[in-house]
Amino acid sequence: MSATTLNEAPPSVPTQGRGAVTKAPRGKSKLDGGVIIAIVVGLAGVALTLGPILYLLLGGFRTQQNLASDPVGLPDPWVWANYLDILKAGLFWRQLLNSTVVALGTTIGVVLFGTMAAYPLARYRYRGRELMYLIFAAGLMFPLTVAVLPLYYILRQFGLVGTLWGLIIPQIAFALPLTVVIMRPFLRAIPRELEEAAFVDGVTRVGFFFRIVIPLARPGMITVGVLAFIGSWNAYLLPLLLLTGPQEGMTLPLGVTAFQGQYSSATTLIMAYTALSMLPALAFFLLLERRIVDGLSGAVKG
Amino acid sequence: MTTMETSGMGRGPVGDTSSAGPRTVSPKVEAQRRADNRRKWSEIALFTGPALVLFLVFVVFPVASAMRYSLYKWNGVKKFSEAEFIGFENYARALWGGSDPATRQAFKTAYSQPFWDALGHNFLIIFLSMAIQLPLALIVALVLNRKFPGRSFVRVVIFAPYVISEVIAGVMWFIIFDPQGIATHFVEAIGLHPPEGGWFEDQTWGFWTVFFIVTWKYLGLAIILFLAGLSGVQQELQEAASIDGASWWQVQWRINVPLIGPTIRIWAFLSIIGSIQLFDMVWVLNRGGTTGQYATIASFMTQIGFFRHDVGFGSAIAVIMFVISLVVATAYMLTVLRRDNADADLSR
Q1: In Å, how far is B173's CA from the nearest CA of chain A?
Q2: Interface touch A300/B225, C-beta < 8 Å
Q3: Residue B88 domain-assigned (yes or no)
Q4: CATH at residue B206
Q5: pLDDT (tens digit, 9 = 90+) per residue, B98-111?
Q6: Residues B287, B154: one domain?
Q7: Rounded to whole angstroms, how far apart are CA atoms B33 and B31?
Q8: B199 and B50 housed in the same domain
Q9: Is the Cβ pair B2, A219 closer than 8 Å?
Q10: Is the CB of A5 less than 8 angstroms away from the CB of B231?
Q11: Is ipTM beyond 0.90?
Q12: CA Rg value for chain B
């Protein structure tokens, strides 16, 4: 990603001023015109993206009257009560904890079991290997939506309805196909000489997996893990069906909708709750932006 | 671009040193070989076992069960063994109102009409994604594909909606499009009339409002993917074309767009599959609308199969959804993506 566009003129701040050239770039001022258009389009994109989010964030600082009378301007007066009430009560933190536990549990399970499954599929030679790979890969075509009704009754039989395990286990299962498909080429790419050297040194295949394969396959595991984490963090359908108990047991997306239903008249309070629920995902994204983008575009390129 | 390298890397011989070709076999070697073989299989079982069990129990079995449930009349409360087998009646009820002339008209209104409406919404979203989102994302990506001040900031911000969950984005926009909310405020301020019954309640506007929100959430992903594709295009080609007198548009249209074709086609594939399964956003916004004005097939399935306890019918809808995505995906892979895969296979 680093050495991308080296052709253009250096990104000097355009000096024509007053947005003189905003038409399609033609003729002599080609490059500068293009830069200005890029800036204009970029700013429009930023405004359209951040505008709604800022509106939500600021709404949490408003009074109900202020929201009705002047939703465009800054909050007047600034009210901290909405945010503080939410942060002081336990509900938000409980739901944040639930979401974290489920997402982490899913991620660990997916990365561990998925990489383990991909290992023989990548590096052993045995009958039925390609068939087994095909079975996993076919799982890409089985969306959770199709399976969710029977899944509910299966989980009820296992006594997992209403529990976080009831979310973690199926989420691992449904993330396995993509994991196996992404991890197999990673594991294949490990040079065979390494393996032979390790065997000469008396390392078993199992030992080789844990001591050499896992560290070497880290980039792939991170990609897969990040995808699984985001998927789990944002999951809604399964929690909707399973977590029908008290709000304390819900994950954040479900909690937000329950909160919205409970305080339907207190819009600014809902705005504060929604804004707070959005922050962890945004922080996680800013922290891992490169990984997420590279992982996704890598997954798309196959 | 980490995975660029990986796709071409499965070239080397795949491990397992134990199964070499035929040799002169002494009993001792033979015993050793058998022991090796046993160990190999137990290792395979150890590594693959957990994933395989999870996958079979929680993915394959439920999908198979959905097909089975779809042949029964079952409310999910009594035991399944007591459920009544009704063949393909659930499918008939969804598609044309069922085989019984006495109830057909009533079932048409209650089941068949909403089903086709929902399916229509899914396909309209697919169509609009290709007709609106694709050109829009492509143009933005082409314009942004250069150095300019604030470039990385713009990229990060534009992508951000993708990581916000559909649910939270949905609630946010629900507040913005409140009949007394800021969207109404804005539209009135520029002298237009917002839909009278409310943005979501309106039979026409409801769908378009939802489509706008979906676009807000997913356009950034398309732009970033296209930009990633564009960063792999050789700059020399564009320079050469420019020197030969090609205009900016010609360079984009003749060089850049064709060269990121594979990225565009994969995005389209993901977008189609996502559109068929669209649920969270729609459900959060009044469960697909009070009269189902923007319901999707997944929200219709959940409504009937889970919240109205008609598990058999819901399962039939699920199976139909599965078949549609399978057919669409297979058709797409066989036609559009085959070329790209053929190219990729050369490097394997």
Answers
A1: 8
A2: yes
A3: no
A4: 1.10.3720.10
A5: 888 888 899 999 99
A6: yes
A7: 5
A8: no
A9: yes
A10: yes
A11: no
A12: 27
